[in-house]
Design brief:
single chain, 512 residues, alpha/beta, Immunoglobulin-like, Rossmann fold, 3 domains, 8-stranded mixed β-sheet, 5-stranded antiparallel β-sheet, 12 helices
């Protein structure tokens, strides 16, 4: 869940009754008026509405309670400064069609998502934002929401309020491969953190842990994540490794550092360009046995993908709660055996459930996806999957796996997904060559109560590898742990355990 603090804004709301004869039962009509000083308007205009105000901060939707906040979204393409934007009553709405919204008093907030990033990582500083206000939405009502200011900086959560690690800095690199793909300069970012006691004048070279965060990770959060890890490791004896935090964010979501016909050659750019660049600027051991991977959620899938796709580049992955590793169970739907099935319901019409809380199902997959559609097609979790795994459509956009309204899966797209990006399928198919390269390198952790049912893919990985000759992959299922408390535990929990394991592997590779 995200929480934000916005500046206090002066907002005017006008409501007037329209005679029933002139507009019988016309749904509430909302206009968002922007101050001229906000300039020309581009992006996705979002209107949020709820019966009650949040206890603190701005009104925001949540995937944990998707029906608590109404969403109405519309694209704005170059409206002049000072424009008033009328929100269509038949626009993208969730969970209730706008014309069917029950009348009454609502807390509302309007935000113009200028960079199309809200679906991926929330509102951005600088987005025009009305702040929370109270209005009456009733048939025939005309409501005007005035937006006069921009969103302020997001406060840093308490657990991330730590000084940046000593000697750390952000590296930026213009990728030739990605720039050639897009026809313009594309920058890759990595936040590099030396170990405690690092002496820039010494000749020692170090092993490296490459960290990839989950869905929603961007360059702006890398220093906070690094500070939190450094503080925890220091409390339990420090680390001997360099940590490199990679920025996975792309306009269409999370790159997962996989080569993609939509996002470009991110895997090739990382392994042949960015890593050599970093090793030329820092004292990093340029050997596979000294390069390690760790990541959570989408970062967990990323690290498994990188290790199994480039086994000669990396010396081991410690992947946690990875996105679906086997497309027989893609958060419920079976894309392999039922490629022409439905994303929302099984063969018996039973809804697939995605989010569970404390081991109990709470949110259907359909609700999660429809909320994402209302927020915007750019960078949502399932839109991100389409961008990485899917072919490019005739319109130049990623070809979607399924119809967002009906849930009907496109069998051709499903088969393309499996053929290229199903990690378990790839391991089984190419084990004769991959097996020897991956000995001692695969370590996967997941909670048995994973919030998004991601333990299913790890079970399939475990079962498949158990049948393959010579596999020593480690799969660990932590009882009653969720997506968000997997790392907790005594003596620094999983964070320290993984650091120690990578350190031991680095020593072993240096002294075979």
């Amino acid at each position: 869940m995200r929480s934000f603090v916005a500046p206090l804004l002066a907002v005017s709301v006008f409501s007037c009754a329209v005679p029933a004869a002139a507009a019988p039962e016309r749904p509430a009509h909302v206009t968002v008026r922007f101050a001229p000083g906000l300039g020309e308007l581009h992006g996705r205009l979002l209107l949020f509405a709820a019966r009650t105000a949040p206890p603190r901060g701005e009104l925001e939707p949540s995937y944990l309670h998707p029906r608590a906040v109404e969403i109405l979204g519309v694209e704005v393409h170059g409206a002049p400064a000072g424009s008033s934007i009328e929100l269509p009553v038949d626009g993208d709405a969730y969970p209730t069609p706008w014309r069917a919204l029950a009348p009454g008093r609502y807390v509302v907030r309007a935000e113009l998502d200028v960079r199309h990033r809200y679906t991926y990582d929330g509102g951005q500083p600088g987005d025009p934002d009305s702040g929370n206000l109270t209005v009456t939405l009733a048939p025939g009502a005309d409501v005007t929401v005035n937006v006069r200011a921009r969103r302020g900086p997001e406060p840093v959560p308490p657990r991330f309020r730590a000084p940046e690690p000593q000697g750390a800095r952000m590296e930026t690199f213009v990728s030739p491969a990605l720039s050639a793909f897009f026809g313009r300069p594309i920058v890759m970012r990595a936040y590099v953190v030396p170990p405690p006691g690092y002496d820039v004048t010494a000749s020692k070279r170090y092993a490296t842990a490459y960290v990839i965060g989950g869905y929603g990770t961007s360059d702006r959060v890398l220093p906070f994540a690094a500070a939190a890890r450094a503080r925890l490791l220091a409390k339990h004896g420090g680390t001997q490794l360099f940590y490199v935090y990679l920025d996975p964010h792309v306009p269409l979501g999370h790159s997962v550092f996989a080569d993609s016909v939509n996002n470009g050659p991110w895997g090739r750019a990382l392994t042949t360009e960015l890593i050599p660049y970093l090793e030329s600027r820092w004292p990093l051991r340029a050997q596979s046995g000294a390069r390690f991977l760790t990541g959570h959620s989408s970062g967990g899938w990323t690290t498994m993908w990188l290790q199994t796709t480039y086994p000669e580049v990396f010396g081991g992955t410690w992947s946690t709660s990875p996105d679906p590793l086997d497309f027989h169970d893609f958060t419920g739907p079976n894309l392999v055996d039922r490629p022409n099935g439905n994303m929302y319901v099984d063969a018996h019409g039973k809804p697939y459930m995605l989010v569970r809380i404390a081991g109990k199902d709470a949110v259907p997959l359909k609700d999660y996806i429809l909320q994402e559609r209302a927020l915007g097609e750019y960078g949502g979790q399932f839109g991100s999957f389409d961008a990485v795994f899917g072919p490019r459509g005739a319109d130049g956009r990623p070809q979607p796996l399924f119809d967002r309204t009906s849930g009907q899966i496109d069998a051709a797209v499903a088969r393309a997904w499996e053929a290229h990006y199903d990690i378990v399928h790839n391991l089984v198919t190419h084990w004769a060559t991959l097996g020897p390269e991956l000995r001692g390198k695969l370590h996967v952790y997941v909670g048995t109560w994973d919030t998004f049912h991601l333990e299913a893919g790890v079970h399939r990985l475990h079962d498949a590898l158990a049948k393959l000759p010579g596999s020593d992959a480690q799969t660990t299922f932590v009882p009653h742990r969720t997506h968000f408390d997997l790392y907790q535990g005594p003596n620094g929990g999983l964070t320290v355990k993984i650091d120690r394991a990578m350190t031991a592997a680095a020593k072993a590779s240096a002294n075979p």
